[in-house]
Amino acid sequence: MRRRVLLALAALAGGAGLLWAASPAPPAKAPAVPQRIVSINLCADQLVLALADRGQIAGLTKNATDIEMSGEAARAHGIPLLSNSAEQILAIEPDLIIGMPASRSAALRALPKHTYPLLDLATANTLDEIYTSIRETAAAVGHPERGTALIARMERELAGLPKPGKGRVAAYYQRRGYMTGTGTLIDELMTRVGLVNLAGKLGKPPLSQLSLEEMVAAEPDFLIVESATDKVTDQGSEMLHHPALKGIPRISVPQAWTVCSSPAYSQAARSMTAQVAGIDGGRS
């Protein structure tokens, strides 16, 4: 083990190509039920926590226990948290690495090619893509039946969910005036609730900035905001509490439910539906 870690460190100092050249081993075959799973990004963390046994998980990302970032944060406590470090992964000798997507990981680029079994999940921005990620992860960690059960639970939670938005316009407005556009998970959630994304109406890209004056002029029916910005905590969240926005009803959703394509999708959809209905009820 020590020799292998030293070899990796030496190769990193001289360039990742040297490490790959020194490790021409064929791809390792993942065991039916891997026992040393490493997740290399936040979205993969949540799927691994939801579908694998705790004892199977050898490492998660440093954000896995952040309740504002992860819908599975409570389950992550006590599991080793890793930085984006090739050395840490080498020391664990994982029998499965999972990422969404894994191909962007600098740590993996510094590891020997084809040394560890890898599940490279595609980024998911729709419910069907979330279901695909769940099935693929469940199969890879050796518990396909858990994936089936989780999808069935989500389908029950979403079944018959009304669309109280009724075609009204909403903007997902974030710190410093950032607004989320179409082709994103939050846009898909808006559609499911019956809302129209203001960013799409304005022809904005998936992420753009809209000034306070522009937002007021656009006159959206709702603002969707991260729950963490319900109170002013910094300059970034201060603009969301400007008096000019006071008259626009708000839908507050934890960022942990929308930052990743995870099982929290159904929670976000149900919460948004209930809040729109509640706002309408309060107006009558």
Describe the model.
The protein is α/β, with parallel strands linked by helices. It has 13 helices and eleven strands. It has helices at residues 2-14, 16-21, 42-51, 73-76, 86-92, 106-109, 127-140, 144-158, 185-193, 198-201, 212-218, 235-238, 265-283; strands at residues 37-39, 57-61, 81-82, 96-99, 118-120, 169-172, 178-180, 196-197, 207-209, 222-226, 250-253. Strand 1 (37-39), helix 3 and strand 2 form a beta-alpha-beta unit. Mean pLDDT is 87; it is low at 1-27.
List the keywords:
284 residues; alpha/beta; 4-stranded parallel β-sheet; globular; 13 helices; single chain; 5-stranded parallel β-sheet; 11 strands
What does the secondary structure layout of this molecule look like, with pairings?
Elements: H1 2-14, H2 16-21, E1 37-39, H3 42-51, E2 57-61, H4 73-76, E3 81-82, H5 86-92, E4 96-99, H6 106-109, E5 118-120, H7 127-140, H8 144-158, E6 169-172, E7 178-180, H9 185-193, E8 196-197, H10 198-201, E9 207-209, H11 212-218, E10 222-226, H12 235-238, E11 250-253, H13 265-283
Parallel strand pairs: 1-2, 1-4, 2-3, 4-5, 6-8, 6-10, 10-11
Antiparallel strand pairs: 7-9
Helix pairs in contact: 1-5, 7-8, 8-13, 9-13
